Amino acid sequence: MIVVTGANGSFGRRVAQRLLTTVPAGGIVASVRRPSAAADLAGQGVTVRHGDFDEPATLTEALAGAGTVLLNATNYGTPPRERARQQEAVIQAAVSAGARRVVFTSWSRLEAYRPERVEDYARTEQALATCGLRWTVLRQTYGLAAALARDVRIALTAGVLAAPAGAARTTPAALDDLADATAAVLASDGHDGATYELTGPDAIDWNDLAALASRLTGGQVAYRPTPDAEFRAASVEGGFPEAAVQELLELYAAFRAGWAATPSEDLTRLLGRPATPSLEAVRRVVRDVA
């Protein structure tokens, strides 16, 4: 039995839906905080259980009978210390439930990302390695295409793409590709002890994003690298909370330092088909939000 935690979230829901194409519904459990919100999954034959990362007792029940558990750690809005506690609670519940394997969605290129906001992912990877269960780490670029799409959407209105990205390049993957690859790993063997870097197949820069904005508007949108201070002031004036702006600046600093700049072939191998080009992954997010 495969248990998908966080199955009401954007990523977990996609994974559960993709599992339904290859795994009998009776072999899938959706662990969610609000079972009523997963009525559509239940209607397709998926077992829906109450599992809350902040209530360990519910996790033991949610994971009962599990063979494989997806520790879905895409809850990026949670503070790192809390997220670490939540992730370790899932691992402990998996051990208690007698699960054989945990698949963990970690942070991309973890060794190259310095901000403390992701230190919990390294801690959880270490906990997995010593928990006694079989494990697989999927280092995701989940959310990366959405972050870049934000720059494109603002440029559609402003007529210029202004961002403190310098000459950075990056490798966002399409959300559907990430969900497909995760489902493939959950439903198959041969991944024990593996750490996969799930990036897009190619690297793009902010000039490419400006070119995308140009195509979408039918006009000419140029990329203008900006200093951090200018970006902060413009973002706060535009209504972004200070804390959110600081997180964005940390992300841009990581981009400039070379984080997530090198594409991996892992996603294409797991998919068994070519992964979606990185710029197309961003375009899809811009389209879906618009």
CATH superfamily of the largest domain: NAD(P)-binding Rossmann-like Domain
Tell me the domain tally: 2
Share of helix, binned: 40-55%
User: Class of the largest domain in CATH?
Assistant: Alpha Beta
Q: Which helices and strands appear, and what pairs or packs with what?
A:
Layout: E1 2-5, H1 10-19, E2 28-32, H2 39-43, E3 47-50, H3 56-62, E4 68-71, H4 80-96, E5 101-107, H5 119-129, E6 134-140, H6 144-158, E7 160-163, E8 169-170, H7 175-186, E9 195-198, E10 204-205, H8 206-217, E11 222-225, H9 228-237, H10 242-256, H11 266-271, H12 278-289
Parallel strand pairs: 1-2, 1-4, 2-3, 4-5, 5-6, 6-9, 7-11
Antiparallel strand pairs: 8-10
Helix pairs in contact: 1-7, 3-4, 4-5, 6-8, 6-12, 9-10
